[in-house]
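Q: Structure tokens for this one, please.
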Amino acid sequence: VTYHMIRRKCFLNLFYAYDDRMNEKRAKYLTKKIAVNLTYSFLDCFYLWMFKWRYRKYDPVEEWSDWAIVSKSMEAGHGVVVATAHYHCFEVMPVHFCYTRQGFDGGVIARTFPSPLAVKLYTWLRQRYNILSFYNDAKSIIRTLKRGRVVGVLPDLYAKRKYKVPTTFYGKPTTTFDIHFRVAALCDCPVVPAFLMRKKACPWKYGLMFYDPIYLSKKPSEEEVDAKVQQLSYVFEYHMRRFPTGWIWFHNKWRIF
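A: Here is the predicted structure, written as tokens:
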């Protein structure tokens, strides 16, 4: 039942996003690849949370594209907001930054779950790797960035609450969070889009792809914030059009089900 529900949601989103360019044969192919990547990501998360001792020596992220984009800002004493999506095993990225090879301090702007138990569990799991979890706590995010640390955010889902702006994704209207841009402006930090890319030959290994950083002025207007949020959405769309099967397509991004 769960598989058919996920498959149906993937089909609805794929046909809605791609319009006439999507057909049933291609939708089936993409959905199968999405399911395979989701299975690998589930196994990656299981390995990540259950075998912490292995990550002292083992890091699944083997290579980077344009690492200087992040290191340049860090060397200047500024923090960095790393914006990614629910793409492959995104939980690996903060562990890579804060625990294994890079050794940066920081945390993630975390999603609040309906269950308090789930919130406590995810907070504890991240703390095992020295990763902070920020739940509706802008002051702690600002304090972390001003100390020259890294904060991760996943702004690709539909924004239901405050700190949201109307945007488009695949040319279709939706809403997106803007809190990461507002705190980045206060701390004079760039927002750097990044994606984990699973290797075909070794699906348990990743490369880390960075895109050009997005900067805001110190005191941005509402129009500038809206424009930068949309710019990030364009980057996400560009990446997902090139590599669509890594994204979790069953989220209700456009509120169509």
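A few notes: The mean pLDDT is 90. Residues 58 and 100 are 8 Å apart (CA to CA).
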